[in-house]
Design goal:
- The protein has 11 helices and 9 strands.
- With 323 residues, it is of the alpha/beta class.
- It has a single domain, classed as 2-enoyl-CoA Hydratase, Chain A, domain 1, CATH 3.90.226.
- Strand 2, helix 3 and strand 3 form a beta-alpha-beta unit.
- Helix 2 packs parallel to helix 3 and helix 10 crosses helix 11.
Length: 323
């Protein structure tokens, strides 16, 4: 009987020890994980505060992006000695491009900010490029498309053929015009044309000021066409033929930023934020005949989906593709 009691006591002691070590192990793992996270955060903080060259990529369609504005504000307070803005974009909304331009100008007041075009800096993306103090581009890069567009499909005749009438009760004739569901009146066309002209004038004035162009050159470059970087250089749309290495050499020579200083990529916290227009909501808007700012072409489905989110004035280069 005494033996059974001793065995029961031993088993209880063993269970307590096992429970203790299990709890100890869990606590140790949690502490180690916390230390690792703190180390990563600390390392990230040290990396931000230490001297480096910040690299920000502007790609896809440009639109209003509060996170990107915050990103530039963080770079301004960081240890970055210069900022490389790598651009490969056909443009986007006028308001988004203006927001990006102003953010870059503000950042440039504190640090050297230069642009490196990887593929294209067209339309709204060119607005971003001229927000920096120097533009580099490889010889075959696409530059320009200085202009503004408001584009929408009109389904009126199609609806008539299938016997569908869309009736509207408006507070005034120009309310929700043009909308693509009814004939566009001359007054509606004139109202939209005035919007386009106003934004186009602002765009041209910006280019003239930032690139120090005379009126004759400005007229030549602002007819909406695109140029290769080789063509853009003598027109003063860019400063130098080259790539990121060329840009680093210029920073070393003119801004005393060592050519071997580490480059750190800065990104917004929301991955793929530049492509949020590819969403179910955008497709539903398109299916509901929302006013679109892009014509249908070979890649029209994607453009239409994009346009439902980018409704309004665009500074966007999108060449019409033909079969």
């Amino acid at each position: 009987m005494s033996l059974d009691v001793d065995q029961a006591i031993d088993r209880r002691r063993m269970r307590r020890k096992v429970t203790f070590w299990r709890i100890f192990t869990v606590v140790a793992v949690l502490i180690a994980a916390g230390g690792l996270l703190a180390g990563v955060g600390g390392s990230n903080y040290i990396e931000k505060s230490s001297a480096h060259v910040a690299r920000v990529t502007i790609g896809g369609l440009i639109r209003n992006d509060r996170e990107r504005v915050k990103l530039f504000e963080e770079i301004e307070k960081s240890g970055a000695k210069a900022v490389l803005v790598v651009i490969d974009s056909p443009g986007g909304t006028v308001t988004g491009s203006e927001q990006l331009f102003k953010s870059l100008r503000k950042l440039n007041e504190k640090k050297p900010v230069i642009a490196v075009v990887e593929g294209s800096a067209a339309s709204g993306a060119y607005i971003a490029a001229i927000g920096t103090e120097r533009i580099f581009a490889p010889r075959s890069a696409i530059i320009g498309s200085i202009g503004v567009i408001f584009q929408y499909p009109n389904f009126h005749q199609l609806l008539q053929k299938i016997g569908v009438d869309v009736e509207s009760i408006k507070s005034s004739p120009l309310k929700a015009s043009p909308n693509g569901l009814e004939p566009t009146s001359p007054e509606a066309k004139a109202a939209v044309a005035s919007l386009v002209a106003d934004s186009y004038g602002w765009f041209k004035d910006l280019v003239k000021e930032r690139r120090a162009l005379d009126n004759a050159t400005l007229t030549k470059v602002s007819d909406g066409r695109v140029f290769t970087a080789s063509q853009a250089l003598p027109l003063k749309l860019i400063d130098e033929i080259g790539d990121e290495k060329t840009a680093r050499e210029w920073l070393a020579k003119n801004k005393s930023v060592a050519a071997d200083l580490k480059v750190r990529d800065w990104r917004v916290r929301t991955a793929g934020s530049e492509f949020r227009w590819l969403s179910a909501a955008s497709l539903l808007e398109f299916a509901g005949f929302a006013t679109l700012a892009s014509a249908i072409s070979n890649d029209g489905v994607l453009r239409a989906a994009a346009s439902a989110q980018l409704d309004g004035l665009l500074a966007l280069w999108h060449p019409q593709l033909r079969n």
